[in-house]
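Components:
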Amino acid sequence: MRAWLLPLAALTLVAATSPARYANTQLADPAKEAEAQALMVTLRCLVCQGQSIADSDADMAADMRALVRQRIARGERAGDVRDWLIARYGEYVSYDPPLTALTAPLWLAPIALLVVGLIVARASFRRRRS
Amino acid sequence: MKRWLIWLPFIAFAAVLWLVAAELTRPADRTVRSRLVGQALPGFSLPAAVPGKPGLDARAFRIGEPRLLNIFASWCVPCAAEAPQLAALARAGVPIDAIAIRDKPEDVARFLARYGDPFRAIGADQTSAVQLALGSSGVPETFVIDGQGRIVEQHIGDLRAEDVARLTALVKGAR
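Structure:
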């Protein structure tokens, strides 16, 4: 380690357990903060599974927010950050399920129900006319 | 319109009721497992968590010696509960390295003095960055790493007495 880094290392040791940078601080660039925020509300907190990391007070959620903001600030795209987390925790970590064979019913059910509704409506209107 | 069709909504309702009742009797497993099991340990380099003990670098896992990687914290109660099991593993000759999550050096030192210190090296992960890179979702967790630095298994939660023999065999066989 270079000599001028030593006081810096001591400082980080003193600042232990204080939350990670950007855990509770917004990014300076409003556009990037908006992008990070949009991603954070669709990521699941792993220790409080009903909440998104944007909503959760858990320490781990804070560290996940820090990770998201730091990566967005570095210029990574939101989709890549989500993929990075999915590669580690599976699709359960994301509140935005992709269209796969498993989630197809979730996406197609509204369309199917709408079609059924149209058929029922058409049949009953036709009966009334006759 | 067929006469029997009138029963269709009731049958659908009964089916939903049956599904809900059946799911109530067996709660879903919400454990989030790491998808990196079977893959290489991601690269990291962590400073020492306590003075007088080395920090942890992912490169140390690729020297042909299988070992355990324990994720713990001094503020975590189950981590204290699994200390006797880790001590037994260390006595059986299993090398154990550790990562302390969001911890202070003085707290880690106090924890080790109270519950024993089976660890060769302890890295300090102040911001859970390495924990997130590992796909670990809490403390305590124990990863089995083979000699090539590949993750063989992830044990979630505290180690029980019955896990000791199994993990010992797993590490010895993971060369």
